[in-house]
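Two proteins, back to back. First:
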Amino acid sequence: MEEGAAGVGGGVGGGGVAGAGAGDRSSFVIGLIENRAKEVGVAAFDLRSASLHLSQYIETSCSYHNTKTLLHFYDPNTVIVPPNKTAADGMVGVSELVDKNYQASKKVTMARGCFDDTKGAVMVKNLSARDPSALGLDTYCKQYYLCLAAASATIKWIESEKGVIITNHSLSVTFNGSFDHMNIDSTSVQTLEIIDPLHTELWGTSNKKKSLFQMLKTTKTTGGSRLLRANLLQPLKDIQTINARLDCLDELVSNEELFFGLTQGLRKFPKESDKVLCHFCFKPKKVTDEVLKPANGRKSQLLISDIIVLKTALDAIPFLSKVLKGANSFLLQNIYQTICENPKYGSMRKRIGEVIDEDVIHSRAPFVACTQQCFAIKPGIDGLLDVARRSFCDTSEERSLLCQI
């Protein structure tokens, strides 16, 4: 185990994002670029949570040990690199590294001009949900120019490939350094059976539970599972963050009411929350005839489904607020103040409540979900919709009567 070059997330607020969980399809798109001073810039964009993680570090080995570890951590579905080899003499270069470790379909080569650090800084400033001063962009702009260049190419590729524009002030952006986390190299991860057990092919899937990650995986949300994976692959070494988490743990252990209330509260949040919230961060790139014409049934179904998931998540906040109101630890107090007392969530609930029926909740059962989508919008919002639903009910009743005859 050694100190890594690029920790992910961190901070007392419990930040940090992991790659896709074991068995899940990765949602990361990564941009890589290097200079002749053995510096590597990395921009990792998580399509699932609309977050951008920027890293820049010096490679100390000819084998690109730090970069290989970081790629193993994110497990990207796409890696974007410039066409020309800019590595120092004796270095393999990030492009060749990707060729050796990833399938050809995962590699995307973009023109060197797409890796523009000036444009990248402007993009990050405009897209970040945090204030530029709080983000520290002015401080990192010149120091981390390589990762900003990688961010420029990554964002351009995503917007071009997906045909969307990322909404301003919607991304969670973090600058990651080697100060708060340690990296565990990929060989040690495999040998220590941190994520996957050894000899899985011999023992079968029943051996899956024998990895450290699977043994500790009692999380109640998908995001919690990814955060657990992140902390196992990149352990914290920031004392302030560690102490804040330990204080939170002490309070949960000593206060059973808080512990079980928080467990119940987390269960109320849909597992698809982060993925759905990410959908609202993108908008169509061009206003074409396809966009202007009435939405087809599939698009309407997806949109209503996303609104129902958002409504269910917002409805869970009051219960979470009640549970955390008396919490004493800094971490839980911070969650209560920034989330539970945020008036914007109440405004969103009220606006959704004007259109969506109050009794509608998210369901993973296909038939129930389909029925809820049909009757989610309140009567009187759209006359044609009311007529269509009436016809649907009449047809369903007639079919039911015919089946009984």
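And the second protein:
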Amino acid sequence: MSQLLTSRQAEELHKSIIAYLSAIGLNESASALRKESQIGDSFDDATRKKYEGLLEKKWTSVVRLQKKIMDLESRNATLQHELDSSTPTSLLRKNQDPTSWLPRSPARHTLQSHRQPVTCVAFHPIFSSLASGSEDTTIKIWDWELGELERTVKGHTKGVLDVDFGGPRGGTLLASCSSDITIKLWDPSDEYKNIRTLPGHDHSVSAVRFVPSGAAGSPASGNLLVSASRDKTLRVWDVTTGYCVKTIRGHADWVRDVAPSIDGRWLVSAGNDQTARLWDAASGEAKTAFVGHEHHVECVAIAPPASYSHLAGLAGLKKAPPAGSSAEFIATGSRDKTIKVWDGRGTLIKTLVGHDNWVRGLVFHPGGKYLLSCSDDKTIRCWDLAQEGKCVKTLEDAHGHFVSCIRWAPSVVKDDPLNGAAAGANGVVNGGAPKKDEPGGQKMNIRCVIATGSVDQNVRVFAS
């Protein structure tokens, strides 16, 4: 006792115990303790009243404090776990080259809230927000780092078929399209308020993409949006006015997907007429038709300049196209279960065979070496363009049902958050690739994050 309490503290404790024993009628015990602890006649009625109840108060205080400490320790452990699992830098493997990173199971997060199949996903260019659209008519906004639902955006009256972030520099918008024949624009900076609805298509709108503007290396602020529809047309919209500035006709059936080139000069579309088509974005003139699939073409992707050196070999070219050019190579995925890689003149240079069902989504690795695909066979496959398109990785059962969409988090400019925001918002097409070494000497920082959506109603985030 002497090691823990001073003599005065010990005396106070003894008096509190004697007062407690007296209060509950254990007078003999109280007397014995007074005798053994040498507390004599000084312990009168006034002293007893002073110490009465003190022991109980101390006891309950200790219990309350213990509970508070336990609660705080539990909360601290939860926050530490959240920090460890959510901070990308803490999860980056040392010496890992982001240009060779590929997704692996299990997914970092499985995001659950949709009540119908998930049809589309898109990353915010700056923040850790991820949008997903579903046949349940809603758009969900998630924090992909934390794996938490931030909000549900409602406005469409039928299934949401595609979403994309982009827009004028410094003013990122979210665009969505739906089977209800409309395109809607939402403002992320104003609680995703619906700021404009774009009517004009005559049937379901299958895909929307913001179109970057300006030559490679210039500030790529874009106020144009392109949409693809079941009415067989592509439409180009000015998001600042809401006007349709161009209608592009040429497909003979439902247009399923559209992708703009990194400089906004070209558009590639694909559809149920079993073709993909290359268009001049400025004039709307058809440049090339890609013919060879034996079923509906579900998806298209334009190769980034980082892929040119690998694809040039596949195409039999002695020299890769210049990095400043765009739409030199494209990939298409079809219900015929194949992926086809073409040059910009419409020549088929490789057919990738491996999926056991419809190919539903394609994305080129920003590092340029790989092409990733998702399919109704529930897998994600990684194709190595440096090895003649060999499938080098398969994520079996990436979802519990058909995998309907795949997107890559857009890259950001290193060490320059302001320019990174602008370039991320517009210079990097969502799910596309960054521009290499811009004139200002800036380099793009690849984010090793992929999101997928599925008929199993889940969104999954695969991250390093």
